[in-house]
Design goal:
six-stranded antiparallel beta sheet; 5 helices
Amino acid sequence: MDRKKDDDVLDAVGPRLRALRRNRGITLADLAATTGVSESTLSRLESGQRRPSLELLLPLARTYDVPLDDLVGAPRTGDPRIHLKPIRRFGMTFVPLSRRPGGVHAFKMIIPAPPEPLEPTPQAHEGFEWLYVLNGRLRLVIGERDLTLPPGEAAEFDTSLPHWLGSADGGVVELLILATFMRSGSGSTGEFSLYLKV
């Protein structure tokens, strides 16, 4: 019985790895270059033709910046808290609040006060985004619309529309974001890495 459970867990690793890679918009060639694992081995691992081993999963966990347990779908044990690791990209701070690959991602975004007003550079990708302004005044550009959201306001939109987030008044902005990311689109870097490029 336990052997069957182990086989089921191992059989689910390949599809989980493929979904994670595709959601992040990473090619097998790029992943091979980053991890040092050959492209053919990665392909066989994702298709289930090769059994996962610690030697193969460790560099993937490092590259994706996810716990090894997330790659194998191990049941959570012990401490249920998410240990926050702020990530700084593009002059902003992102605090992931969820830790599973794929699906909906939750994170806090902190946009610092810019030294001078920024010109919006809208980006588009497949997915959907919901945001809630905690502090500051958010400038949200979606297509031709240019909106200002004060604390307590929320917005939701299809991210296939070009969009941009910044400070509306030159102050710090803090917001919570729930986002789903599909394949990478025009100008995007894919999945959660649209913002983080982990």
